[in-house]
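Q: Sequence in, structure out?
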Amino acid sequence: MLKLRRKVLTFALYTRLFIFILQFVCNLLIPDHEPGVFAWITDPSVQPTVLDKVISFLTDGLMRWDGQHFLHIASNGYTFETNLAFFPLFPLIVRIVANVIFWMQEEYAILNFFSAIKISAVFINLGCFLLATEAMYDLSRKVLRDEYLAYKAGLLFAINPASIFFSSAYSESLNSMLTFYALFKISKSLSAKTCICLALASATRANSILNAGFVLYCSLKIVATETILYVRLKKACKEKAEISTTIANVLGDAIIPGLFNIIGCVAPFTLFQWFCFTNFCRITKNSPDVPEYVVEYGRANLLKVVGDDPSPWCNDDPPISYSYIQRTYWGNGLFSYWELKQLPNFALAVPIISIVLVSTYNFSWFHWDYVKRFGLVDNNLLGMPRKPILAVRQYRVLPRECFVYMVHAAALAIFAILFMNIQVATRLIFCASPVVPWLAAMMTTRHDKSPVPLCDDDNVEVLHKVECKSNLESSTDTILFQEKIESELGRWIMMYFLGYFLIGTILFCNNLPWT
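A: Exactly. Output:
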């Protein structure tokens, strides 16, 4: 519905403006913490202009923590081994756009290239977040098949607890946009568009390689459906059952496009590891062209600079830098983060981990007949009447069509618990999975509220079932902060979203530890 889509996008834009203003005010009033982490190195011989100082004054609160790595890569390339933890698509796009911005004003010399990098990162993430929110809304309509829940999920995604990372110089917004759009297209069929989006997502963040699971599931579902239809047709009418037709459908709709899409998921990771190997293991004969001030920073901070002696991972078979970098520089690995001093970080991740894992258990219990068949086959295809199930709203459980999304979210949560810096779980899940906004929409909705069937045109009656008339005419008001939340769990969910939204922005922009 066009009006609801515009409403979601307008709300998402206002949340980004709010974060921008909040980070500016907090960065202005609160002294910055000195975390002693990696810092983006700019050319010390370049004198900042007045506009450079204004841009830094306005945006430096968004350029914290890992954002410094992305900005450094966009500006100087992969010069340090620690940079290899960050995948190349986001800094590449930032550099391309920054080059255009810098070229447009080069004759006037009103800003330097490092300011063009900052402007580029901010506006790219703004555009990507709006497109990600739209993709979330479209995917929610397709899977949930409920205008109200899809609309509310889009609004909740716009204020998700990891919001600051979607506006700062991180790759979360780009990854969400590509992933949600790919999942929306996969829910229809596997195609060249899904392959391209999956490949680009894998070039943005390492965890996007898990999107191959959606491709595999979609392919298996097509194979199962075609096989059962053939068996049923053969039993009913042997003359009409042609195995060649079934094989052609399986090959054309599942196996061939599925294979290409899986290659699309895996290829960017493989190519990036090859780039790391050829540049950091002295495979290339040309000596790297690294500015002297970058080398000096690396030596002063005991960083391994490109061209130095190869690290142990270069001798591995296969030589994969990613796991070595994560283990050596970030302390990731099986149970490596399970230390008493990390309890505060585990506490930060408790809400997201609890929501995902408890909801996964409830989903499995509620839809057990569907889950035990891995959601591949519908009862109707087996010739059995579909079992009536109690209203999912009443039990705060997502519909069974969400099976593969629940599995994916649970896999991310379990991986974060076992292998990662646990505090990263919040942004890891929100930028890769639509499940938590769906669950939040369900849990903050009255259990007796009737579903609103999908409607493609702006039917007034349907619109008023989703959003009240005055809000539709307003550019700022939505049901999100007006509807009364009946359940205690729903109120806690809303407090979690808003609390992390605000506290995370305040802490992050002042270089204080956050998720």
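The mean pLDDT is 90.
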